[in-house]
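Sample 3 of the quickstart, ligand S-adenosylmethionine:
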Amino acid sequence: MSHSAAKNQLTCSVDDYQLFKKFLSDASGIELGDGKEYLVTSRLGGLLRQCGLENMRALLSELSSGRNLRLRASVVDAMTTNETFWFRDAPHFRLLASKIFPETDSQRLRIWSAACSSGQEPYSISMQAYDYRLRNPGKLSNVEIVSTDISASILSEARKGVYSGLAASRGLNDEQRQRYFTAHADGYEVKQEIKNKIRFQEFNLTRDFASLGYFDIIFCRNVLIYFPAAVKNDIIQRMSKALRPGGYLFLGSTESMPINLDVFKMVTEQGGIIYQLKK
Ligand SMILES: C[S@@+](CC[C@H](N)C(=O)[O-])C[C@H]1O[C@@H](n2cnc3c(N)ncnc32)[C@H](O)[C@@H]1O
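Result:
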């Protein structure tokens, strides 16, 4: 490494790391473990340079002043992990098609994708509903998928619904790409009929859910892992109140119900596990 590159390398002292951990936890609920200084410096280096901030201390002082809401959002953005792909956890989508849609297809169905990242999760749900409507004309005509994430930048990607060839290949085969997308200069664009069912909105899961209304189904997958136990438990507890009686909660396939909430019944079918709010 050259002398100047070494000089420009962002570093994070033990004290600054503790302050940063506190900032991130207050702003997003995300808990950084010990010894993750490298994660902070590698994710924030570019942003600091862009904002003309010399080091972590300057960033922390700007954040604590409360003056710069845009910087605050950009820092949270940079610290989120947005990994996702199409039809992730396939058994969940089989359960939607074979169990949940047939149970509810005559009613209005409200679904919440609670940490939707770049959109693959809510679009996959909408694609599954699209197929169901094709197989069952006149059914499932009133579906609304509210898709939220804390990251404004990832939501603007999700809203576009345009994916590169590589992104559109993760979890989809050629036949599905043909069925669900139209050609676009930058790759593939999700068909309008699939997009129409989705409303994207910036939303922090640590905030009150009341403004979102009630749901028949909540997908809260691969996000609780970033939160400490108390935050996880609180979110699940509040989700149980945002679900209609008999509604379903989907967690990531490697996640389990963090608390022993007896308001939920575990449903194991199609190789997947979901949680049904007791009626
Ligand atoms: C790994 S992705 C999961 C995407 C999708 N649910 C899936 O399973 O493929 C986690 C997402 O959670 C979002 N996230 C992190 N903290 C959040 C919070 N406090 N409120 C809402 N979204 C949050 C991140 O921005 C990121 O897009």
